[in-house]
């Protein structure tokens, strides 16, 4: 049976990937030459007559090569300028461009015993995978094909762990340095594209009004106003003062949410008060909810702080009764509480996609370990809760104070004269 020796040459041409196939070494016998645009999505199958061949590979761009079409079966990460590309031990029928430092969308791990015998193949590690006892007790080496994976001491990815980082070529890892049998394995991080839609914020105010008042600073609404009543009867005056102050809300986004491929806030998101600390919590709750909605509606770096400033006008109006022969001085202030901690919980619907298919809730849970799972809406839509703290600098309350003084020499209604204070 004639065996065809195949050489692959992959080169980058601008924004495209060029694939060249040869039937002999030293790049002789060109049989396939095709340019694959970078915007060509998904798995790329070789032409029928080139599928299933073994041979040599020369690369100047990383690929994940697969034994079968549609990127199925044995997979291997192939990097440029590495010695193990001279002889392919498994055939190639399809490939994917590498994704970042990982081996494309499929994460493959193989375990071997001390004699080099293959014990088991994991063709697609995403969530936690428990190893059979026979594999766990006999495995001395694993091949992670350049992917980042974590190994664990106990089942369900618990106990001591070790991260095996992504390499630039298919790397073998000696398991003797781990010190334990490997009982389970998982991908290092998210192994799919996650999306989150926030539908509810719940606010918790950690300080009550008395605590805030004790550390709030007072800002005058207006200069002191003095009313004079030189007449012989009580008069009524209207007092009005207002001032515009700047308030701010700083949100440090949940890393669990902002690290997802996409996230946003549902139209009509609800904002609840988990613990009412007085009237002020209700009065600023709407503003806090609005800031949270804006913060999570804008994509940004994971864990990034987002700040919004707004101007708000505080006003007071008071009817004042001024007795005869009295000078009445009125002042008003607004109390500004700075760096008020506000704990909030966000409730979100999480979905995922991996390898062109939706991820199940079971798969998603291993990608968001720091979030609390609540329930499944269906097999592919999961409800999660996470908690974060933001800070706000806001106006809390307004105050009016007044003081009346006799007007010296003023004639009262009974004909007597008022005297200066102290007489």
CATH superfamily of the largest domain: Proaerolysin, chain A, domain 3
Would you give the CATH topology of the largest domain? Proaerolysin, Chain A, domain 3
| Structure annotation, total helices | 5
Task: Specify Rg, calculated over alpha carbons.
Answer: 36 Å
Q: Given the helix and strand composition, which structural class is it?
A: mainly beta
Distance between the termini: 128 Å
Under CATH at level 1, the class of the largest domain stands as Mainly Beta
Shape: elongated
The parts where pLDDT drops under 50 for at least 5 residues are: 1-6, 8-14, 99-104, 167-171, 415-423
Helix content: under 10%
Level-2 CATH architecture of the largest domain: Beta Complex
Describe it.
With 423 residues, the chain is mainly beta. It has 3 domains: 93 residues, no CATH class; 79 residues, Crystallins (Gamma-B Crystallin, domain 1, Sandwich); 212 residues, Proaerolysin, Chain A, domain 3. 9% of the residues lie in helices and 53% in strands. It is built from 5 helices and 26 strands. The strands form 5 sheets. Strands 17, 18, 19, 20, 21, 22, 23, 24, 25 and 26 form a 10-stranded mixed sheet that branches. The protein has a 4-stranded mixed sheet with strand order 3-2-1-5, with no helix packed on it. Strands 4-8-6-7 form a 4-stranded antiparallel sheet, with no helix packed on it. Strand 2 and strand 3 form a beta hairpin. The longest helix is centred in the last third of the chain and has 17 residues. It is elongated and about 120 Å long.
């Amino acid at each position: 049976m004639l065996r065809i020796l195949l050489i692959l040459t992959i080169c980058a041409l601008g924004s495209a990937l060029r694939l060249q196939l040869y039937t002999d070494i030293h790049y002789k016998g060109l049989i396939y030459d095709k340019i694959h645009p970078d915007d060509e999505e998904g798995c790329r199958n070789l032409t029928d007559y080139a599928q299933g061949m073994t041979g040599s590979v020369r690369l100047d761009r990383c690929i994940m090569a697969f034994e079968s079409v549609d990127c199925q079966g044995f997979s291997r990460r192939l990097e440029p300028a590495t010695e193990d590309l001279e002889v392919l031990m498994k055939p190639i029928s399809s490939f994917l461009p590498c994704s970042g430092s990982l081996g494309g969308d499929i994460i493959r791990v193989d375990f071997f015993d001390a004699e080099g015998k293959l014990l088991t193949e994991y063709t697609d590690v995403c969530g936690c995978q428990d190893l059979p006892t026979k594999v766990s007790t006999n495995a001395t080496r694993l091949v992670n094909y350049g992917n980042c994976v974590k190994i664990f001491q106990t089942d369900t990815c618990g106990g001591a762990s070790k991260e095996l980082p992504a390499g630039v070529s298919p790397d073998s890892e000696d398991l003797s340095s781990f010190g334990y049998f490997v009982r389970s394995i998982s991908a290092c991080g998210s192994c799919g594209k996650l999306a989150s839609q926030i539908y509810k914020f719940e606010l918790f105010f950690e300080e009550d009004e008395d605590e805030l008042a004790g550390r709030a600073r007072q800002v005058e609404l207006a200069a002191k106003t003095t009313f004079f009543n030189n007449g012989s009867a009580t008069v009524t005056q209207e007092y009005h003062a207002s001032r515009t102050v700047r308030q701010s809300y700083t949100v440090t986004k949940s890393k669990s949410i902002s690290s997802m491929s996409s996230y946003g806030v549902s139209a009509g998101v609800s904002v609840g008060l988990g613990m009412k600390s007085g009237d002020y919590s209700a009065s600023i709750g709407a503003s806090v909810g609005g800031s949270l909605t804006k913060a999570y509606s804008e994509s940004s770096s994971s864990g990034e702080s987002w700040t919004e400033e707004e101007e708000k006008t505080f006003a007071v109006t008071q009817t004042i009764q001024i007795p005869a022969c009295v000078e009445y001085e009125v002042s008003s202030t607004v109390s500004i509480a700075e760096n008020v901690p506000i704990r909030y919980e966000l409730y979100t619907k999480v979905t995922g996609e991996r390898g062109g298919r939706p991820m199940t809730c079971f798969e998603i849970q291993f990608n968001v370990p720091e979030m609390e799972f609540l329930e499944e809406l269906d097999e592919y839509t999961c409800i999660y809760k996470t908690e974060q703290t933001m800070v706000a600098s806001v106006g809390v309350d307004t105050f009016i104070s007044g003081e009346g003084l006799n007007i010296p020499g003023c004639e009262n209604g009974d004909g007597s004269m008022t005297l200066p204070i102290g007489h």
